[in-house]
Specification:
The protein has 480 residues and is an alpha/beta fold. It folds into two domains: 2-219, ABC transporter transmembrane region fold (Up-down Bundle); 241-478, P-loop containing nucleotide triphosphate hydrolases (Rossmann fold), CATH 3.40.50.300. The chain has 17 helices and ten strands. It has a six-stranded mixed sheet, sandwiched between helices. Strands 2-1-4-5 form a four-stranded antiparallel sheet, with helices on one face. Helix 6 runs antiparallel to helix 7. The chain binds adenosine-5'-triphosphate (ATP) and magnesium ion (MG). Adenosine-5'-triphosphate (ATP) binds next to helix 8.
Length: 480
């Protein structure tokens, strides 16, 4: 299941709340685990007891044994009715617990914002709402389970009363010896517990089936790892990327973000995408590694449509420094090595030096073995970015995609990052979504993007000289 979720395309993954997956991993799998590890062994034990006791009863007096067994069809009808109700209400309860998990994941992940806005009470009430809804739904399941047991027990008890009356009259008539009657009651006593427990187990199994169906919903989601038959192998890549009349919308109903987008990003070029917020710059960058597929037109790498390239080869040629740097809980060295797992220590250190990570690591007591905390919270924004750049350098990609953070860095960090960029950009195809003038100046070609279209193309100086929209944005943003 983990592997499956890991291999989903981003387009499919984005449609899900992470909490929805979390609850399926914990609660729904939990129902299945309980059924297999607790209910199943007990059920085996109880079944053995039941079969042995019934066999004994049949050997003592088969007519009386049949009276007891006659109540099994009634019991199974009742259990069947209950199970349908249990299935429906378990499904509702599982959906509500998924809401609780989503809420939990979101609030735990955004503690800084919650605290900054003093929204502790607000979040408590919001959580209480989700929690109450879950409580109500789970109460239904519990009520059903707790009603089922006495109903079954009553049916079984009625059958036993009938048998006891029959046995007593048989003894009176002298057709059955008291010793045999006592043995029969002993055997019958052994069947009562199993009959009551069966209904409970069946309830557990119906709930486990609901869990299983929710787990299989995930396993049935499409994954992207399967390359189409005949996918093109590209062991060595030059790095010429071309967008040809690309049309793309995040959802089929939504307005297209890109409509007829055409651009070239060739080997050796440093292409800066510049434009107002929401223009579609990150979207363009996301299409190159095929995170999403365009609905029209095509994107080619060295002349081959990327839709037909083996995903390993396509993404193997690319390194990405995302807009919000994402690190993993682990050491600084671990995070850099994520770019190429088989890299030697010397290579990791070299990448760290090039990205100016070495500059702040030397001041840390544990050096490269410093743990960065979940998502890298123990590093500053600028430090995180440099680690992310080192990770990309280690990969030595043909195509480097850099989605520059919109947040401003202090001039020292900025300078160190620029230095790092100067070292790594040459000789590749670089796509920078640039917000900083210093990075824009570094570009060999600027694509000025507005509403998903290239409005102007050229070098910084040429675009300024032409006095168009880029010059306007530049003047407004950097007041020069
Ligand atoms: N995952 C998504 N699902 C749906 N719509 C999205 C998604 N990501 C972006 N969009 C929409 O696509 C449009 C372009 O977004 P994009 O992130 O490409 O902008 P951008 O140019 O990178 O902006 P910025 O400079 O602020 O980073 C926006 O209108 C945004 O609302
Ligand atoms: Mg962006």
């Amino acid at each position: 299941m983990f592997d499956h979720v890991n291999r989903m395309s981003l387009a499919d993954y984005d449609r899900w709340r992470p909490g929805e997956f979390m609850s399926r991993f914990s609660i729904d799998l939990g129902l299945m685990i309980d059924a297999v590890s607790i209910s199943l062994p007990q059920m085996v034990q109880v079944t053995v007891t039941f079969v042995a006791a019934v066999t004994w009863m049949v050997s003592l007096d088969w007519v009386l044994a049949i009276v007891l067994l006659a109540c099994t069809p009634i019991v199974s009808i009742v259990i069947g009715r209950f199970n349908r109700l249990v299935t429906v209400s378990t499904r509702m309860a599982q959906e509500r617990i998924a809401d609780v998990s989503s809420n939990l994941a979101e609030v735990l992940g955004n503690q800084r914002v919650v605290k900054a806005f003093r929204r502790e009470n607000f979040e408590r009430d919001r959580f209480a709402g989700a929690n109450d809804a879950y409580f109500g739904a789970q109460m239904k399941v519990t009520q059903l389970n707790q009603t089922q047991s006495p109903v079954i027990a009553t049916i079984v008890s009625l059958a036993i009363i009938v048998i006891v009356v029959m046995v007593v009259s048989e003894i009176g008539a002298g057709r059955i010896a008291p010793a045999q009657a006592i043995a029969f009651f002993g055997a019958m006593a052994l069947t009562i517990n199993p009959m009551n427990r069966f209904s409970i187990f069946l309830g557990d199994f119906s709930r486990a089936l609901v869990g299983a169906s929710r787990v299989f919903e995930v396993l049935d989601l499409p994954i992207e790892a399967d390359d189409p038959p005949g996918a093109v192998r590209m062991p060595s890549v030059v790095g010429d990327v071309r967008f040809e009349n690309v049309r793309f919308a995040y959802s089929p109903e939504g307005a297209p973000v890109l409509d007829g987008f055409t651009a070239e990003m060739l080997h050796g070029e440093i292409v800066a995408l510049v434009g107002p917020s929401g223009a579609g710059k990150s979207t363009i960058a996301n299409l190159v590694p095929r995170f999403y597929s365009p609905q029209g037109g095509r994107i080619t790498l060295d002349g081959v449509d990327i839709a037909t390239i083996r995903l390993d080869d396509l993404r193997g040629a690319i390194a990405l420094v995302p807009q919000e740097t994402q690190l993993f809980n682990g050491t600084i060295a671990d995070n850099i090595r994520y770019g190429r797992l088989e890299a030697t220590d010397a290579e990791v250190l070299a990448a760290a030096r090039e990205a100016n990570v070495a500059e702040f690591v030397s001041a840390l007591p544990d050096g490269y073995n410093t743990r960065v905390g979940e998502r890298g919270v123990r590093l500053s924004g600028g430090q995180r970015q440099r680690v992310a750049i080192a990770r990309a350098i280690l990969r030595d990609p043909r195509i480097l995609i850099l989605d520059e953070a919109t947040s401003a860095l202090d001039s020292h960090s900025e300078h160190l990052i620029e230095e790092a960029l100067d070292r790594i950009l040459p000789g590749r195809t670089t796509l920078i979504i640039a917000h900083r003038l210093s990075t824009i100046r570094r570009a060999t070609k600027i694509l000025y993007i507005e509403s998903g279209e290239v409005r102007e193309t050229g070098t910084h100086d040429a675009l300024i000289a032409s006095g168009g929209s880029y010059a306007g944005l530049h003047a407004a943003q950097f007041s020069v």
